[in-house]
Amino acid sequence: MSYDPTRLSNQPALTTASGTSWLIIGGLFSGIAIAVLIVLETVAPHGLAWGSIAAIVGLYAAMFIVRFTVASHRRRLRIIAACFLMIAFVGLGSVVTIAAASWAAL
Known about the structure:
transmembrane; transmembrane helix; membrane
C-alpha cells in the first residue's frame, strides 16, 4: 500500500504536529462554548449548562495533560483531536437541548 497524502489519517495535523496548535484552538473553542453556556445557565433545564461547563473544562484539561504526557506523536494527536470533538459535541448538544426545552415550554 502506497502513501496517500490525501487520506485523513496521513494529514500533518494528525501525524507530525506537536499538539500546541490543538491546545490553542481547543482553548478558544472551549472559551466560546463556556461563554454561551454561562448566558444560558438561567434557562431550564437548570443545571445542564453548569454540568456541560464542567465537562468542557475537564475535556480541555485532559487535552492539556495528554499534550505533555503522551510520548507517541500519532497517539497524542488522535487523543487530543478526540477530546476536541467531544468538547464540540458537549457544547452543541447542551445548547440544542436547552433550546429544545425552551421551545417546548412555549
